[in-house]
UniProtKB/TrEMBL annotation:
Pfam families: CX9C
Organism of provenance: Nephila pilipes
Segments forming domain IMS import disulfide relay-system CHCH-CHCH-like Cx9C: 1-34
Gene Ontology biological process terms, A to Z: cellular respiration
Any one annotated GO CC term: mitochondrial intermembrane space
InterPro entries: CHCH_domain-containing_protein, CX9C
Superkingdom to which the source organism belongs: Eukaryota
TM segment ranges: none
UniProt-recorded name of the protein: CX9C domain-containing protein
Length: 85
């Protein structure tokens, strides 16, 4: 997730194409990693808000940065909870 986030931040105007490899790797990880599977469930509403924003503004990721950061914070919280249980 960190590599994808860094790529998106580095290429805000062309992240959709520039970060396709990182997005693919994140998707692959999210299908198998236990914490990512848990985050998928617990953070689904936060991710849905980000996805709606992304669909509304596909060429301007900066408009969705707050919803993306909310999603990252949710995933980090799930990861921290998962590492202590």
């Amino acid at each position: 997730m960190e590599r994808y986030t860094q790529c998106v931040e580095k290429y805000p105007n062309v992240w959709n194409t520039a970060c396709s490899y990182q997005r693919h790797e994140l998707a692959r990880c999210s299908e198998t990693h236990p914490i990512m599977l848990k985050a998928k469930i617990k953070c689904s509403s936060v991710f849905d808000k980000y996805e709606r924003c992304h669909k509304k503004y596909p060429q301007d990721h900066s408009r969705c940065s707050s919803s993306f950061n909310n999603f990252l914070n949710c995933v980090e919280t799930v990861a921290e909870d998962g590492s202590t249980s």
